[in-house]
Design brief:
mainly alpha; globular
């Protein structure tokens, strides 16, 4: 679930710098893991990307959850995603790539396409973008989402 530091700061009622310090302390204590995934933005020269943060098993153990409970919850979550991918007729890996590029969780990406009301023009464009991205993922499974995004941008020109 994508959460920004500013969002967490607003929800908790503390400043952004204090939120960053809390996250850093959680990583240093081993309760949370942080992996930086980024790419160079050729237009601005900046690095852009995500900091993937995961909560470790230590945290769950400290609040009284057993490893069996954690494994059971993980298994249920993975089964739920597999079922969602089957219903959407898309590979699980590709579903993750699409949700990473479009932004949002995989459930929202798939259910967004199931709406029965007439979509707004910006939603239509977003759907076209998602469908084209799905097609490119199927065509180039070895490419990363960043490379596919570059291909998409080249097609717009």
């Amino acid at each position: 679930m994508p959460l920004t530091v500013s969002f967490l700061a607003r929800k908790t009622g503390i400043t952004t710098s204090r939120t960053e310090r809390v996250l850093r302390d959680l990583v240093n204590s081993g309760i949370m893991k942080s992996i930086r995934v980024c790419h160079l933005d050729t237009e601005t020269g900046d690095y852009r990307g995500y900091a993937i943060r995961t909560v470790s098993e230590k945290f769950f153990e400290s609040i009284g959850l057993t490893l069996e409970m954690i494994k059971k919850a993980r298994k249920r979550a993975s089964e739920r995603l597999k079922k969602l991918a089957r219903k959407a007729k898309i590979k699980l890996v590709n579903l993750a790539k699409v949700s990473l590029v479009v932004g949002g969780n995989p459930v929202a990406v798939v259910t967004r396409a199931r709406r029965w009301r007439q979509p707004r023009s910006d939603e239509r464009e977003e759907r076209k973008k998602v469908e084209l991205f799905k097609a490119l993922i199927e065509k180039f499974p070895e490419k990363s989402p960043s490379e596919i995004r570059i291909i998409l941008d080249q097609r717009k020109d």
